[in-house]
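Lecture 7 notes: from sequence to structure.

We start with a single chain of 117 residues. Read the sequence below before looking at the structure.
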Amino acid sequence: MTLQSLEAKSVRLRALAQQQGCAVVNLSEQAKSRLLFPRVCLPALQACATQADLLEAADWALDPQAIDEALRAEAQLAYMVPSGRYWEVAGGFDAHKLREIDHLWLAAAERKALVVA
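Now the structure, written as tokens:
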């Protein structure tokens, strides 16, 4: 139930990584991917000296206001399972509210080509 949208969860991972000074990219050469990370070929990645260089090269922005809104919605929902075994208590989760949060995460991502040559 908590993984209704892999795309939304990938935007969440990228946003949280970015807040920690990390860049998350997709190095896959396959044509399709549900992960909404910038696609970067290995030579382009190696040419980037800093995360800022990588973010500029990837040309893929996340909306900071949308990120804040999604994080607030998560905090308000307060679905925290200290053991990490969420499947044992998933019956208490509201699938509709989780879907709404996924939509907030998706709103944080700009839809454009995520390819760096």
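The chain is about 45% helix and 5% strand. Keep this in mind for problem set 3.
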